Recover the amino acids of this structure.
């Protein structure tokens, strides 16, 4: 009886540091999946086994399953340790034709070898519809020649005077001290700015104080 001398090469025993890393990455993948559900597919690849690399998948958009093989990016990382670790926001497409945006992060061990990849694939279909709605909602008629603002007349002039006063003191409007605010109020009163409708409200908002404080500073 002949003995077959050909023996399969035994797989190297799993490294504890690799197992710990994969365990932690599973938690990261789960957290990302729960945070961005249901529009972002999160896939964790174990690049030590390219033929069955997918070990976790959340918010499944691509129809893949745990145990499926890695993608071209995974193979590229396995073959080349200098392959970019982060590929962010690149255009992709789901199997049913929907447009997607993807980010792939390669994970290396202490020896600088790729052992895992964390990938996120976002379905852009809904966001495209939302963008269209926002463009329509935020659109204005550029042909309408209406000169109107929704703030009290002279409000911008008041802000300019406050900014100029603060600049002379090498300060900002919101950093003015009480005595400086009182001096400012005298200037505004003497220039007629406080006669503007809702002037106290404009001043209070620009200084970051209450209207009561403005009234008190104006009286002092």
């Amino acid at each position: 009886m002949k003995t077959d001398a050909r023996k399969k090469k035994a797989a190297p025993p799993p490294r504890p540091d690799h197992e710990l890393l994969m365990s932690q990455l599973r938690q990261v993948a789960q957290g990302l999946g729960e945070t961005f559900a249901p529009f972002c597919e999160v896939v964790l690849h174990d690049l030590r086994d390219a033929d069955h690399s997918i070990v976790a998948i959340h918010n499944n958009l691509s129809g893949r399953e745990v145990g499926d093989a890695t993608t071209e990016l995974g193979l590229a990382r396995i073959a080349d340790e200098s392959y970019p670790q982060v590929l962010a926001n690149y255009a992709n497409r789901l199997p049913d034709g929907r447009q997607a945006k993807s980010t792939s992060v390669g994970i290396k061990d202490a020896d600088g070898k790729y052992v895992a990849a964390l990938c996120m694939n976002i379905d852009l279909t809904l966001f495209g519809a939302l963008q269209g709605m926002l463009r329509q909602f935020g659109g204005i008629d550029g042909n309408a020649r209406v000169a109107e603002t929704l703030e009290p007349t002279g409000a911008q002039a008041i802000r300019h005077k406050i900014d100029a006063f603060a600049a002379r003191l090498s300060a900002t409007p919101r950093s003015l001290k009480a005595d400086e605010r009182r001096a400012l109020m005298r200037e505004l009163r003497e220039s007629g700015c406080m006669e503007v409708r809702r002037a106290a409200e404009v001043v209070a908002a620009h200084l970051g104080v209450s209207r009561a404080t403005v009234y008190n500073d104006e009286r002092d």
Q: What stands out?
A: The chain has two domains: 16-124, 155-219. DSSP finds seven helices and five strands in the chain. The radius of gyration is 32 Å.
